[in-house]
Amino acid sequence: MSEQPKRYPIDQSPLYSLCGKGKFETVIGVSWDAVPELCSSSNYRVWTNENGREIQAPFKGLAATHRKIGLLLSRIDVPGYVYSQKGRSYADNARQHLGHHPVIKTDIQGFYPSISRARVYGMFRQDFHCAADVAARLADICSYQGLHLPTGSPLSGRVAFLAARHLFDDIAKLASASDCTFTVYVDDITLSGANATKRLLAEVRRLIEKHGLRSKRGKSKSFSPSSPKSVTGVILVGEDVRLPNSRHQKIWETRRALLTATGEERLKLERQLKGREQEANQVLCSPRNIEPPRVSWRLVGLSHAGMAC
What burial class does residue 3 get, using C-beta atoms within 10 Å of its C-beta: 0-12 exposed, 13-18 middle, 19+ buried? Predict the structure, then answer.
């Protein structure tokens, strides 16, 4: 197993207090004068995914630069409440909220597009203490057409967290004062505990708005102690972890299609089934278990489990 890279505080990052064109070029690996051309729209692939969301993915030299900055940012220590990081998963995030208690959750509307170039510039200027011209160059590189974080870049997740770090820290303080467990997975915000009430959810949503972002009303939900709870694509029922019905359905449909498939189509379906079953076992398998369980086929009704606020 490969060794995890050493993490360090933000003030130990090569990006911290970065100033001067020469140091910029050494750390980022890009000529100062080449940045405007590097950031041009011709260095992005843009398409609309199956959910109707526009994806902007860097390629060519810009993709390599994004990977390098993303790697540097990934080595900065983040708080324990962050589960969208190497060595953790969405299932680990959900497991933090197991138990017979209320759960509240929300997420940030259009998280990456909401992180503007100005917000990224402010992060490099104020939190990283970069020189103004360096902060501007870094914000240009990290932004799609000088507008916002690209939705398909390897650096967007970490930049988005760091740019919104003050918001998440404020939610963590609110959760601690309310004796609640708080986790965040990208922009999925979850709190659990006896005091995870609709009133606390309203306070969380007000904090998000205070920091210049918006939460999704339709995804802002509260769950009673006894109801099944959907958290980052995992169903929690008391101390048990289960798969959502939609994932059971996909596994069943793939198995059914395999009964009549032949040739390349069969090979494709076999790979698909293997991946879906492996993912299901990762969700259902407790870190304490040695052997993963077989996928459970008990379906969980959620039509009245979560109430939009």
Answer: exposed
